């Protein structure tokens, strides 16, 4: 009997060890997901999001999406916590987080990962959490780590980037644009530093475009030479976009491969490029969201 009891105890200990190991693996996996999401979310908020403290002393974090990207908004909502999605006039929806519990989850995810003047609003939110909800969060500085190390730029591109193809009889070019206003209106700080960093990373120049229909002028990053496209491709293959721009990117790369292989002016190559162009941006009618199952 003693021998059987010893074996049982041994088996029980092994089961306990195995269970704890699974819990630890799940915890580490969740931490890894949160780390990726934190950088991506920071870039997305800095591109198309807002952090506001209302007159009623409430905090709100909101992110605007094109209506076709509602599945991404829903996925973020299901992963992050309590909030809602509101349809706006035109072709957009807004993901809104206002519950204190959810704000408390988001801030540690993005703190230390901001790169733009919008960090001013994040700092105000941290002060609010520390004062009103007894948290003890440090206001971490702007992130100056290499852009290729994390998914911040992917979030920023999902907010403000655009892939497109120029297809004419004499010229076929894959192009990418990233546009952001020059000045952050709440602090009058310039976006030049972060846009310059992105230019250095992609080995391109920074342009300025005046917008007659709007108050602000905008910085524009243009990527169209093959070496810069290869840099961008290397980054996005490691740090995936999550909006429908990921699908545009795949078509864009399909066309770029024809250019690299020097088959873009062949009959078959032109068909592939024409098909890719007709499946991008506003022409896209089919959406596959498998890339959100990360």
Description:
The chain folds into two domains: 2-132, Endonuclease I-creI (Roll); 159-292, Homing endonucleases (Endonuclease I-creI, Roll). Mean pLDDT is 90; it is low at 1-19. It has 294 residues and is of the alpha+beta class. The chain has helices spanning 2-48, 70-80, 100-110, 119-132, 152-160, 192-202, 226-238, 245-260, 267-277, and strands spanning 49-53, 59-66, 84-88, 92-97, 161-167, 172-181, 183-184, 189-190, 206-209, 218-223. It is globular. It is built from nine helices and ten strands. The protein has a four-stranded antiparallel sheet. Strand 1 (49-53) and strand 2 form a beta hairpin.
What is the CATH architecture term of the largest domain?
Answer: Roll
CATH topology call of the largest domain: Endonuclease I-creI
Low-pLDDT windows of residues: 1-19
Q: Which term fits the overall shape? A: globular
Helicity range: 40-55%
Count every beta strand, where a strand is a DSSP E run of 2 or more residues: 10
Determine the CATH superfamily of the largest domain: Homing endonucleases
SS element count, helices: 9
Q: What is the CATH C level class of the largest domain, in words?
A: Alpha Beta
Element order: H for helix, E for strand: HEEHEEHHHEEEEHEEHHH
Q: How are strands sequenced across the largest beta sheet?
A: 1-2-4-3
Major sheet summary line: 4 strands, antiparallel
Q: Calculate Rg over CA atoms.
A: 23 Å
* Total of domains: 2
Sheet-strand content, in percent, reads 15-25%
Between the first and last Cα atoms, what is the distance in angstroms? 50 Å
pLDDT averaged residue by residue: 90
What class, by secondary structure content? alpha+beta
């Amino acid at each position: 009997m003693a021998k059987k009891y010893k074996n049982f105890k041994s088996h029980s200990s092994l089961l306990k060890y195995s269970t704890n190991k699974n819990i630890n693996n799940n915890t580490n996996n969740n931490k890894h997901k949160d780390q990726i999401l934190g950088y991506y979310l920071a870039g997305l908020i800095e591109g198309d999001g807002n952090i506001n403290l209302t007159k009623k002393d409430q905090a709100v974090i909101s992110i605007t999406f094109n209506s076709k990207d509602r599945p991404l908004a829903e996925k973020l909502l299901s992963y992050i916590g309590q909030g809602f999605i509101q349809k706006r006039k035109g072709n957009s929806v807004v993901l809104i987080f206002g519950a204190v519990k959810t704000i408390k989850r988001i801030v540690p995810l993005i703190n230390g990962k901001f790169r733009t003047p919008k960090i001013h609003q994040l700092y105000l939110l941290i002060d609010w959490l520390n004062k009103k909800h007894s948290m003890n969060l440090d206001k971490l500085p702007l992130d100056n780590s290499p852009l290729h190390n994390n998914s911040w730029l992917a979030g920023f591109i999902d907010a403000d980037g655009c892939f497109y193809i120029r297809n004419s009889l004499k010229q076929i070019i894959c192009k990418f644009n990233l546009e952001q206003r020059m000045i952050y209106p709440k602090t009058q700080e310039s976006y030049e530093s972060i846009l310059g960093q992105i230019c250095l990373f992609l080995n391109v120049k920074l342009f300025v475009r005046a917008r007659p229909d709007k108050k602000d002028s905008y910085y524009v990053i243009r990527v169209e030479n093959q070496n810069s496209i290869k840099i961008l491709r290397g980054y996005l293959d490691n740090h995936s976009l999550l909006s429908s721009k990921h699908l545009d990117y795949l078509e864009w790369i399909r066309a770029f491969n024809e250019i690299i292989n020097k088959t873009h002016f062949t009959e078959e190559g032109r068909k592939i490029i024409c098909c890719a162009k007709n499946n991008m941006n506003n022409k896209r009618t089919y959406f596959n969201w498998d890339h959100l199952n990360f």
